[in-house]
Amino acid sequence: MKPFYNQVNYLYHLVMDNFPELPQEGNMASSFVLGGLGIYGVVSLLQLASKKVVPNFDKKILPLLEKGCIAGMIAVPLVYAFVDPEGAKNIITQHPTYTSGMLGVEVGSITRALQDLNKRKKLEERMN
Questions:
Q1: What is the C-alpha separation between 109 and 43, in angstroms, rounded?
Q2: Of the candidates 116, 117, 119, 111, which has an alpha carbon nearest to the alpha carbon of residue 40?
């Protein structure tokens, strides 16, 4: 089974097929950078939208979601590798470019969520 293969394949080609030749040649590095920067931007926009759209969502619910997402983004691949080590190995060896892109997504999203949580913590400390 290839979890999320079709979605990742679609997104990869949506971006990479429209890029100049140079990023396409460095598939793994380009996938990592594009995945990381892309999700970093998406998470930043979602954080900004949460401040503007839903009252108190940004202050009460978003930090809990960020913590849960950080834990999930770390735990899910580890659990999958534990439950189906052969499947995890196959994903990494048969699709290294997509694996690199998904690792970039993990790093970018976790980084942005941690930055937001740390900013909140510093603001809280200044207020007290």
A1: 7
A2: 111
Domain count, the chain: 1
At 70-121, the pLDDT tens digits run: 999 999 999 999 999 998 898 889 888 888 888 999 999 999 999 999 999 9
pTM over 0.85: no
Look up residue 1 and give its DSSP letter: -
Tokens of 98: 């997509």
Contacts of 109 (CB under 8 A, 6+ apart): 39, 40, 43, 69, 73
Residue 37 lies in a domain: yes
Residue with tokens 């189906």, as numbered in its chain? 84
H helices of the chain, in order, are 5-16, 21-25, 27-53, 62-83, 85-94, 96-127
**Cα three-residue angle 22-110-88, rounded to 5 degrees:** 75
22 within a domain of the structure (yes/no): no
Location of structure tokens 């060896």: 93
